[in-house]
Amino acid sequence: MQEFVVLVDDDNRQVGLMPKLEAHNSNTPLHRAFSCYVFNAEGKFLLTQRALSKKVFPGVWTNSCCGHPGPGEATEDAVKRRLMFELGLKAESLMVILPDFRYRAEMKGIVENEICPVYVAFVDNEPIPSPEEVETYEWVDWVDFVARLKENPATYSVWSLMQVEKLTDDNLFQEILKRISI
């Protein structure tokens, strides 16, 4: 089944649809997406490496899950769908933490150009990664993850670098981290 991305204007109003693989090229139009950071009951963050076979940003380490809401699909439903598809995870709770995040990034001639709200999900099971989406994963302490980003930023996705910079300055995210005893 072919996936479509929802093309939007600068005000996030839908202006069209495009097949996902066609949309991601050297001139990627602005479209809707999301990012999700998953935490387990021990307060560890699920760090993933994108599959080496992916067209867009293959092999980079990044947040737990990314994706695109389909036509007419609520973003929260898309997050839950992709968590299950990519990682075999069911979110026990889900909250948006950066509702207005937007970015543009390029790697090897492929551009990401997204309005991309950022979510946090809490899970109580181990991932079962889909090999076409996730190369590998590890559970890490959030503080260690932030330190790794600073030590070797080229290893990580541009969007996760930008998101973590915003999250480390965000009081709401600090409250979430306290709640899970990090």
Strand content: 25-35%
How can the largest sheet be summarized? 4 strands, mixed
Low-confidence residue ranges? none
CATH architecture call: Alpha-Beta Complex
Radius of gyration: 15 Å
In CATH, the homologous superfamily goes by the name Nucleoside Triphosphate Pyrophosphohydrolase
CATH topology: Nucleoside Triphosphate Pyrophosphohydrolase
How many distinct folded domains? 1
Helix percent band: 25-40%
Give the number of DSSP strands.
12
Structure, described:
By secondary structure, the chain is of the alpha+beta class. The chain has one domain (4-179): Nucleoside Triphosphate Pyrophosphohydrolase (Alpha-Beta Complex). 26% of the residues lie in helices and 33% in strands. It contains five helices and twelve strands. The chain has helices at 20-23, 75-87, 142-151, 158-168, 171-179; strands at 4-8, 14-19, 31-32, 34-39, 45-50, 61-62, 65-67, 93-98, 102-107, 110-115, 118-122, 134-140. Strands 7-4-11-8 form a four-stranded mixed β-sheet. The termini are far apart. The mean pLDDT is 92.
Fold topology:
Elements: E1 4-8, E2 14-19, H1 20-23, E3 31-32, E4 34-39, E5 45-50, E6 61-62, E7 65-67, H2 75-87, E8 93-98, E9 102-107, E10 110-115, E11 118-122, E12 134-140, H3 142-151, H4 158-168, H5 171-179
Features:
33% strand, Nucleoside Triphosphate Pyrophosphohydrolase, single chain, three-stranded mixed β-sheet, 182 residues, alpha+beta, four-stranded mixed β-sheet
